[in-house]
Amino acid sequence: MAKIFSGVQPTSIPTLGNYLGAMHNFVTLQEGNDCIYCIVDEHAITVPQDPKEIQKNIRNLAALYLAMGIDPQKSILFIQSEVPCHAQLGWIMQCTSYMGELERMTQFKDKSKGKKAIPAGLLTYPPLMAADILLYQTELVPVGADQKQHMELTRDLAERFNNKYGDVFTIPEPYIPPVGARIMSLQEPTKKMSKSDTNRKQRSSHWIRKKRSSRKLNLQLPMMKPLSVMTATQSRESRTCSISSRSAPAVPLMR
């Protein structure tokens, strides 16, 4: 049984790229593995966000996780900001990383291109991602091909920390599916499909909503009750934080 961790940002509407590249595998991997799936809302604020919009997106993403088949009885589903250990270990990982390696990250270069004021969070995003993964002694991380460089940095940071302080963290391996790992834009096939793309026609969501409304079908997920509070406890065996749910949220069904 492998320990698996992965997360999705609650920004905009997930694309076909998100689904095929990572989320589709979440359901399959929860069979026979110890899976932890996260709504990474702290990563979302590396760029400006509307507070009301991000709260709505968190609820919608939680509903999507459950609707596509994530079973709270088999997997742990939680909100990143509800577990302070993520930010705490994120700072330690920042102190373990070097400016040069963070500035070489392709996603940082792409997202900061042309900006006069670059949020520091864009630069320090990878150490927080490393903390998310290392916190749970993760062995396998289902990600899209665009996250391969971040996974390599995560492994480097874990090894660097272990070499200095002892055998603390498990060195994780990326799980990149052979099909669907990198879905390209619908209108610009040289570009990767992205939720943050300003051209909504390059993502699936625009056409899906248009097609859905034309058929006059009500496919909107009902709003969930607030997710149960997840508590962080110190595990002596794993020497890291683990999470448990006091009650599993009810699974909303699509009408």
TrEMBL record:
Keywords, sorted A to Z: Aminoacyl-tRNA synthetase, ATP-binding, Ligase, Nucleotide-binding, Protein biosynthesis
Q: What class of enzyme is it?
A: ligase
Q: What is the lineage of its organism?
A: Bacteria, Bacillati, Bacillota, Bacilli, Bacillales
The annotated regions of Basic residues compositional bias extend over 201-212
CC per GO annotation: cytosol
Q: Where is the composition biased (Basic and acidic residues)?
A: 189-200
Task: Give the family, as the similarity comment puts it.
Answer: Belongs to the class-I aminoacyl-tRNA synthetase family.
| Source organism | Sporolactobacillus inulinus
GO biological process, alphabetically ordered:
tryptophanyl-tRNA aminoacylation
Q: What is this protein called?
A: Tryptophan--tRNA ligase
InterPro entries from the xrefs? aa-tRNA-synth_Ic, Rossmann-like_a/b/a_fold, Trp-tRNA-ligase, Trp-tRNA_synthetase
